[in-house]
Amino acid sequence: MVLERPERCQDLQHFIRARRFLSEEVARELFRQVLEAVRHCTSCGVLHRDIKPQNILVDLATGQAKLIDFGCGTYLQKTAYTQFADCQDLIRWCLSVHSLDRPSLEDLFCDPWMQDTHLP
Q1: CA within 20 to 30 Å of 15's CA: 7, 28, 42, 108, which one?
Q2: What per-residue confidence (pLDDT) applies to 86?
Q3: For residue 66, what is the DSSP state?
Q4: Among candidates 24, 21, 26, 9, which has minimal Cα distance to 68?
């Protein structure tokens, strides 16, 4: 899914670096907006699972923050989350030094992470 990207925006990490620091008022407003975004997501039954400065866009014209990149997202559930949001183990397996230790294509298709077909 592709959504709009404000014409003049920066992710929060670059926004802070470019200014070297944020005033308390600006930091509070951005934090409030992120909290509102998270509240909205959870009210819709969605868990982001990867909130970090790189996944928060700041519109330079309006100061509006947008939470982006729901690639690790999932639906909220009442039971414990048993799978990690990332597939680092699978990547490590693919990057094994010895070719015989690497997964086959069939191994990859059978990996539990690949079997999870729930999209956020």
Answers
A1: 42
A2: 53
A3: E
A4: 9
| Backbone phi and psi for residue 47, each to the nearest 5 degrees, phi listed first | -115, 125
Residue count (the chain): 120
Residue numbers annotated as active site: 50
Q: Tell me the H-state helices in the chain.
A: 12-19, 24-43, 88-94, 105-110, 112-115
Residue-level pLDDT at 2: 67
**Global pTM value:** 0.67
Structure confidence at residue 84 as a pLDDT band (50, 70, 90)? low
The pLDDT value given to residue 120: 40
Pair of tokens at residue 67? 């939470």
**For the chain, which domains are there?**
9-75 (1.10.510.10)
User: Six-digit token pair at 76?
Assistant: 């909220």
Lookup result for tokens 């729930």 = 118
